[in-house]
Write a structure and sequence with these properties.
Two copies of one chain form a homodimer. The first copy, chain A, is of the alpha/beta class. Chain A has two domains: 2-55, RecR Domain 1 (Helicase, Ruva Protein, domain 3), CATH 1.10.8.420; 59-199, 3-Layer(aba) Sandwich (Dna Topoisomerase Vi A Subunit, Chain: A, domain 2). Chain A has helices at 7-17, 24-35, 39-55, 72-75, 90-99, 126-134, 149-162, 187-195; strands at 57-58, 65-66, 80-87, 104-108, 140-143, 168-171. Chain A is globular. The N and C termini of chain A lie far apart (61 Å). The mean pLDDT of chain A is 89.
């Protein structure tokens, strides 16, 4: 931070630098951008940050982000409440919504089980999922955690809890991504794609 | 913004997306980062933004950013007040300060003359520079605007104003950047490097 004699600027740069994917140069650029905002704009930006914190909470049903008690998907009467797609993160919900193909509901775990990082089942919303299922409406749970070691382990853990409850538990298909070149596919993905081959 | 049913989140993402070098994916990542901050941290972040706007003003002498009437460089008794390095932007001051070689003072233009963008001499701090010079202490002005068409034009414009005032006006040397490979140097830079060659 050499050279920043202006303490409040240094603090602003520092704030940006803590953000993911933002290095010192970018943080500097962002801080100067904020500094060059009109006063009203800067106040609006600050207020937006506070608002987001103030207003956004978890949907009491699916744990996705929501401003109301229920998120719009849980509130909707057009969604199939018997199918639940379990994802790690609110962003994953957006990814599925973009397909316009899934008509069920979601459950957002807000993380994955990761003993290395000290995250256990009690730190993610497994309890909330179980109590949703206990209400009896859910028939199928699609485990859509990331295809990583931790996402995998979390999917396995949850599926073991759910099977005794008489729920169909499925997992997203593995395979080569559409549009990708096989040449660049890794061995594990290719093996999974072979294993999961379908008769045409 | 399809899929963002959470209005305050959408607004936050939107705010980040307006920033330079931040695309939609990054804006999303930053917004979620802010959302995952502790409440106190978010409040601090918002306050830092407001503080920067509140506290940072222009040094009454060199127009660099300062929290006080004078910036630390103008305040310092160790700096040579007879030499002024004219730069476009506060970040350029930092760049020069990092060299630890320049002992003069600066003058920050806060822009360059750019008729294309509707920026005239009156929109940058030329007037302030002239009134500093009128005080009689300044002997040399180093034009250190960027080596771009606009930086160049601004340097020329200001030097024409200053020369009649009996001031030595110099310009940063052009040449190949240290550590670069000649193979990749552009023709103009190489031509300038040849023109500016020195006897060893």
């Amino acid at each position: 931070m050499a050279g920043y004699n202006v303490a409040s600027l240094a603090r602003l740069i520092d704030q940006f630098e803590r953000m993911p994917g933002i290095g010192h140069k970018s943080a500097q650029r962002l801080a100067f951008y904020v500094l060059n905002m009109k006063k009203a704009e800067a106040e609006m930006f600050a207020q937006t940050i506070l608002d987001a914190h103030e207003k956004i909470k978890k949907c009491s049903c699916c744990c996705n982000l929501a401003e109301d008690e229920l998120c719009p998907i849980c509130k909707s009467t057009n969604r199939d409440k018997s199918v639940v797609c379990v994802v790690e993160d609110p962003r994953d919900v957006l990814a599925f919504e973009r397909t316009h193909e899934f008509e069920g509901t979601y459950h957002v775990l807000h993380g994955v089980i990761s003993p290395m990082n000290g995250v256990g089942p009690e730190d993610i919303t497994v309890k909330e999922l179980l109590s949703r299922i206990a209400q009896g409406e859910i028939e199928e749970v699609i485990m859509a955690t990331n295809p990583t070691v931790e996402g995998e382990a979390t999917a396995m853990y949850i599926s073991r809890l759910l099977k005794p409850m008489g729920i169909t538990v499925s997992r997203l298909a593995y395979g080569v991504p559409v549009g990708a070149e096989l040449e660049y596919a890794d061995e594990v993905t290719l093996t999974r794609a072979l294993e999961g081959r379908r008769t045409l």
